[in-house]
Every structure is written in C-alpha cells, then in structure tokens.
C-alpha cells in the first residue's frame, strides 16, 4: 500500500509528545497464543526514537523466547525484532534522525560510545548486552514505554526492538536509518535472519571464490548463507536437510548439491567427506541441534576448514568436543547478526538489496495482516513458510 508522506507527516506532528494508543501482540506467558489488544506507547525519552512499524515478520528467535527456552523468561512482553517503519518522533538528544525517516529497529545495538564499540573488534555493544536479558529501556534500566490500556500495568520490551506493535520505542543505539528508496515490506526481513545468514558467509567465515561449502538446515538463515556463499563465488554449495522440499527449494538460492539426511546409513559428515576430499572449506550449522552442530564441525576440512555455528541451542543443553579436532588449523566459530554492526553497516546491506545484489523477494512466501499474527506464528512453527510479511496497517 502506497504511503502518503504528507498525510503521514501531519499524523506525526499531531502525535509527537503524546501517548499513542495502538494495537500490539502481547505474550502473557510461555507457549500461549499472543493477545492482540490496544496498548499505550509513551513518547520517547531523550535518547530514544518512537517508530511507526509498517511491516514485520517473525523469526525463530521469537519462537525460542516465546516458548520460554531462555533463562530469564520475561513476561508479559511485546516480542518481535524483524520490522521496518518510519520515525514518528525523537527525543531531545537525537541529532541524526527526524520524523519521516525510513528506519530499521535493530536488536544488534550500536551505541558507538561504550568500550566494546570503541574497541572495534566485534559488533557487540553494551546496549545489546543489556537488552539481551532484560525487558526495560536501556537508558534508565527500570521503565518501559509500553503499558496496558485496561490498568496501566507495564509491558516489557524485547531485544530493544519489540516490533510486534504498530508503534514501538527504541534506544538510538537500536535504530538504523536506511535508504529512502527501500521497500519497507521487503527490508523488514533485514532485522535478523537474512543478514545473519549472508553476513556469516561474508563477514564471519569469509567464504572465498572457488571454495566448497556445506549448509545444515535450509530455513531462512540457511538459505541466506547459501545466497551469500553464491555471491562470494563458492564453487560447490552442499545443502543438508531432512526435508526434501527444502532441499529442492534451495537450488533456487544457489545449491549445487543436495543431501537428504533421512535414511542415511552412515554419519552425514562421512558422506560429505566422501563428496569433497577431506571435507569442505566452510560449514554452517543453522539448526541449533547439538548433534547437527557437531556434524557440521566434523565435515569441515581438518587443515584450515572453518565451521560456523548459527543455530540457537536450548540454554539447558551443552556440547563437547576434543581440542585435538582443531590442532591442524580448523576453526570453530560463531557470531551474532552475521557480524554486521546495526547502525553503521546494516544500511550498506539495505543498499545492496535495493541494487539487486540480494533478492529478498524469494524469502517472502506469505503475506497477511498484522491482526493474523498468531496464524503467522503457527505457520513458522510448522515449517510452512520462510517469512510471512505482515502489513501493520491492515
């Protein structure tokens, strides 16, 4: 649906500084359907930004926390971290954003001020560290900007983004200003899964031209790894999954070989080592399954291979291996958000999508109104979609 910017500007001028009443999907307890109801969204604090979310999607990380698999189990909460929209209003200390700017709420915070940001060795930021296990605003660490209409009780934030709401408030560290030509109904996917996969190929593993790659698990993140490896020039990309339809689908993204693990008479890592002498140059686990993580590590070439863990494993489980597995130079590594810094580097990926380097269209398998978010959750849980993009104005 086309956005009338003049109408939008008038709306924002009228709501700036006021409490906004809007629809949000609230998780009141683990493993229960979300409740779509009116909430109050307070104006932004001095270092905060209030955003009108126009489009969003659901990621498996949302499902992980909604199921209470994390240690903190914070409820009630407005989840969501894949969304896009317009700046509605800004706090008095915000200098680089203004109402009407197209933005992505980014859970991969980048304050540019903390010791971690100044160190520059990774994309980890102190604001991210706080948001990871807390539900309050990082500015004061004790308040929220969401409350129930019925009784005024506070509702917790999630990852600094909380995109399952028509309006959200983010710390400045969690807002990336993007290309004004970007299609918000597409770039909302750049909140998590797609940059995690593409960036893991480009920034973390640094896939090289002519190399061999194995990707375990062909959901959105796995397919994004495939696309990233293809763009990087990998010569052989092996897709590993137990779902034949996902393997066939992966050919569209760039798989050169498919390996269905159902019914194998030997460990999958042995099969891959037979397909590629001594193992692949780069392997990626995109499942979070301990056994699969281990197989992905085992199939990487012992002499300098790189194995990357992307799947989010249940916090109650562990994985062990013998250090001798790495003696010949194999690396076993991981990272968040594909190594991208949220504010300074994610806009570059948006530009690549606008320029056609990355195709976001084939990740969008379904579209529906925000009011049907529980249906979208169910489809993702059952593996019936990659990404279902929701329209928050319908």
From TrEMBL:
Residues 1-17 form the signal peptide. Gene3D superfamilies: Medium-chain alcohol dehydrogenases, catalytic domain (3.90.180.10), NAD(P)-binding Rossmann-like Domain (3.40.50.720). GO terms for molecular function: S-(hydroxymethyl)glutathione dehydrogenase [NAD(P)+] activity; zinc ion binding. Residues 221-351 form the Alcohol dehydrogenase-like C-terminal domain. Residues 45-178 form the Alcohol dehydrogenase-like N-terminal domain. One of its GO terms (biological process) is formaldehyde catabolic process. Transmembrane segments: none annotated. Its cofactor is Zn(2+). One of its GO terms (cellular component) is cytosol. Keywords: Metal-binding, NAD, Oxidoreductase, Signal, Zinc. Belongs to the zinc-containing alcohol dehydrogenase family. Class-III subfamily. This is Uncharacterized protein. It comes from Ceratodon purpureus (Fire moss). The lineage of its organism: Eukaryota, Viridiplantae, Streptophyta, Embryophyta, Bryophyta.
């Amino acid at each position: 649906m086309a956005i009338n910017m003049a109408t939008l500007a008038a709306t924002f001028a009228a709501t700036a500084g006021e409490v906004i009443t809007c629809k949000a999907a609230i998780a009141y307890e683990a493993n229960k359907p979300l409740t779509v109801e009116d909430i109050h969204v307070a104006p932004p604090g001095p270092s905060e930004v209030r955003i009108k979310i126009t489009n969003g999607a659901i990621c498996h990380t949302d499902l992980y926390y909604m199921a209470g698999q994390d240690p903190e189990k914070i409820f009630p909460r407005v989840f969501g971290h894949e969304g896009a929209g317009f700046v509605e209003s800004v706090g008095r200390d915000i200098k680089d954003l203004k109402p009407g700017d197209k933005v992505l709420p980014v859970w991969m915070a980048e304050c540019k001020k903390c010791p971690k940001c100044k160190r520059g060795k990774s994309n980890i930021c102190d604001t991210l560290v706080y948001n990871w296990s807390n539900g309050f605003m990082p500015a004061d660490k004790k308040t929220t900007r969401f409350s129930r209409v019925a009784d005024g009780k506070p509702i917790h934030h999630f990852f600094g983004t909380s995109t399952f709401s028509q309006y959200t408030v983010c710390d400045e560290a969690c807002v990336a200003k993007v290309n004004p030509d970007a299609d918000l109904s597409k770039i909302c996917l750049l909140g998590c899964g797609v940059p995690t996969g593409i960036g893991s190929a480009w920034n973390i593993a640094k896939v090289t031209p002519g190399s061999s790659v194995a990707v375990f698990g062909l959901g959105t993140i796995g397919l994004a790894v495939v696309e990233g490896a293809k763009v990087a020039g990998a010569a052989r990309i092996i897709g590993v999954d137990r779902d034949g339809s996902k393997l066939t689908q992966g050919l569209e993204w760039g798989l050169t070989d498919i390996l269905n693990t159902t019914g194998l008479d030997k460990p999958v890592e042995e099969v891959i080592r037979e397909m590629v002498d001594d193992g692949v140059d780069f392997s990626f686990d995109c499942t979070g399954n301990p056994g699969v993580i281990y197989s992905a590590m085992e199939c990487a070439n012992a002499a300098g291979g790189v194995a990357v863990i992307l799947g989010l494993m249940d916090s109650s489980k562990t994985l062990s291996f013998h250090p001798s597995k790495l003696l010949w130079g194999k690396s076993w590594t991981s990272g968040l958000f594909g190594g991208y810094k949220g504010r300074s580097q994610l806009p570059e990926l948006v530009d690549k999508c606008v320029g056609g380097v990355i195709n976001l269209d084939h990740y969008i398998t379904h579209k529906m109104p925000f009011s049907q978010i529980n249906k979208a959750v169910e489809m993702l849980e059952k593996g019936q979609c990659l990404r279902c993009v929701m329209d928050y104005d319908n």
